[in-house]
């Protein structure tokens, strides 16, 4: 491995935490004997082009500093290459880093984990999800949760996390299950009225909501969580248990495992790693060992 490391920074992540987290990460890497080059972009497209250029130029590793959106960009730069990906979580959700067991609230500790992991070659190949030419590391969300995202993204006020709380209340007021057609890789087709369908390469989304609690990014399979035709009252009662994965024991919830999943539903947008993929139908494939990541 070359001693030059590329720090891929989103300075606005977590209301400025990205810029602050980059400094201790760079210090930890330099203390471990690495040369550090920092890459930032004027917009996501420019940032991704710069990250891909660094990978093509033979950087020893790409270290993403930011939230899940920044990690998603980084995945598009390193997936399918031998370049390791390190993470210094500095966003709001940090679900990909959480799935890898990295420190979430301590960028100094995360920077040291990455520096030590690169020095000691603690690198693990894990799976990624792919939809068309788009990669994702955590969860492809569709249904009620994606409708909340749609509404929140249209709102100009309020800002931050409160925007999505307001959007959730508004979606609850208009709540109804959606008719889905789900096809798994064995060809089995399920037609169901569902509240949401989540395709998990990792267990959580939305900052620790364990919607697919059994998902393992190293087993070559997705966990597909289907929440059936809940009433509004049932949804309100079950939703808080998602943070510990307790919802999977509810009779309206089923979990399937597959390497390929096709989702069809009218008027539903798919989101992966919190980023919009586009309207359903969408087909997700689990690609084993698609990325090499630095682990504790």
UniProtKB/TrEMBL annotation:
GO terms for cellular component: plasma membrane. Pfam families: DAGK_cat (PF00781), YegS_C (PF19279). Its cofactor is Mg(2+). PROSITE patterns: DAGK. SUPFAM superfamilies: NAD kinase/diacylglycerol kinase-like. Keywords: ATP-binding, Kinase, Lipid biosynthesis, Lipid metabolism, Magnesium, Metal-binding, Nucleotide-binding, Phospholipid biosynthesis, Phospholipid metabolism, Transferase. Residues 1-135 form the DAGKc domain. It comes from the Bacteria. GO terms for biological process: phospholipid biosynthetic process. The keyword Lipid metabolism applies. One of its GO terms (molecular function) is ATP binding. Belongs to the diacylglycerol/lipid kinase family. NCBIfam families: PRK11914.1, YegS/Rv2252/BmrU family lipid kinase. This is Diacylglycerol kinase. It comes from Streptomyces cadmiisoli.
């Amino acid at each position: 491995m070359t001693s030059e490391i590329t720090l891929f920074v989103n300075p606005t992540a977590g209301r400025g935490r990205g810029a602050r987290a980059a400094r201790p990460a760079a210090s930890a890497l330099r203390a471990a004997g690495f040369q550090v080059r920092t890459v930032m972009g004027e917009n996501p497209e420019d940032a991704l082009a710069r990250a891909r250029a660094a990978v093509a130029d033979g950087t020893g590793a790409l270290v993403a500093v930011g939230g899940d959106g920044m990690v998603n960009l980084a995945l598009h730069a390193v997936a399918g290459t031998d370049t390791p990906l390190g993470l210094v979580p500095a966003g709001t959700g940090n679900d990909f880093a959480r799935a890898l067991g990295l420190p979430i609230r301590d960028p100094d500790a995360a920077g040291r984990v990455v520096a030590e992991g690169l020095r000691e070659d603690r690198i693990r190949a894990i799976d990624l999800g792919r939809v068309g030419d788009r990669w994702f590391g955590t969860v492809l969300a569709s249904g009620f949760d994606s409708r909340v995202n749609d509404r929140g993204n249209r709102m100009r006020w309020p800002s931050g996390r409160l925007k999505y709380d307001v959007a959730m209340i508004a979606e609850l007021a208009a709540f109804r299950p959606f008719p889905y057609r789900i096809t798994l890789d064995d060809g089995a087709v399920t037609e169901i009225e569902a509240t949401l369908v989540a395709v998990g390469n990792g267990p959580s989304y939305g900052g620790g909501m364990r919607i697919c609690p059994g998902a393992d990014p190293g087993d070559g399979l997705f966990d597909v969580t289907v929440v059936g035709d809940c009433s509004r009252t049932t949804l309100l009662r079950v939703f808080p248990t998602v943070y510990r994965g307790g919802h999977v024991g509810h009779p309206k919830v089923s979990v399937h495992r597959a390497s390929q999943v096709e989702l069809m539903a009218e008027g539903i947008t798919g989101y992966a790693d919190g980023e919009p993929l586009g309207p359903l139908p969408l087909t997700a494939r689990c690609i084993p060992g698609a990325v090499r990541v630095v682990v504790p």
